């Protein structure tokens, strides 16, 4: 479990393909503090640390993960968001994020305002029931609030701290991002579908 409050960004140093899997070596300020078998959110995708060396860590994504997320389009040098799993004796500053991306969305527009930024994202309309006005959503693992929600678009506003300390500053029109919808909304939807 995660909170969607990004701890650091990392850089993709190298990518290794083996069969249908892809392994990523990531360099970051957190890498030296990680342990093998630890869960870490990488742009909102929970991946297990499987090797450590020289201030870097390696994680492996299987075919299913590569199909449902933007990991298959990662390239060396790319910056990604990182968050270690939640500590249960602290405050929950964002919202409950599992690190299980539901789909990808495409940035339609990036607007620089006077001291903040707005991003408009288009997502698959079959998930429309999970996106609500002023609701929580994880974009590349970052806990954000949606507004101007319609059937297949939503907008998020980004404060300067988030812009400077996450990978959102690299998102442009056309960029694919990982989305995870609010787990509470997903449970409500499931309960309602079974009670019909």
From TrEMBL:
Q: Which organism is it from?
A: Hydrobacter penzbergensis
A biological process (GO) of this protein is:
riboflavin biosynthetic process
Q: What is this protein called?
A: Riboflavin synthase
Lumazine-binding repeat boundaries on the chain = 1-95, 96-192
- Could you tell me what this protein does? Catalyzes the dismutation of two molecules of 6,7-dimethyl-8-ribityllumazine, resulting in the formation of riboflavin and 5-amino-6-(D-ribitylamino)uracil.
Name the keywords, alphabetized: Repeat, Riboflavin biosynthesis, Transferase
Q: Does the keyword Repeat apply?
A: yes
Coiled-coil stretches: none
Task: Name the domain of life this protein comes from.
Answer: Bacteria
| Pathway noted in the entry | Cofactor biosynthesis; riboflavin biosynthesis; riboflavin from 2-hydroxy-3-oxobutyl phosphate and 5-amino-6-(D-ribitylamino)uracil: step 2/2
Catalysed reaction(s)? 2 6,7-dimethyl-8-(1-D-ribityl)lumazine + H(+) = 5-amino-6-(D-ribitylamino)uracil + riboflavin
Q: Which Gene3D superfamilies match?
A: 2.40.30.20
Looking up PROSITE patterns in the UniProt record yields: LUMAZINE_BIND
> Any idea where the Lumazine-binding domain is?
1-95, 96-192
Q: Which E.C. number(s) belong to this protein?
A: 2.5.1.9
Query: GO: which molecular function terms?
Result: riboflavin synthase activity
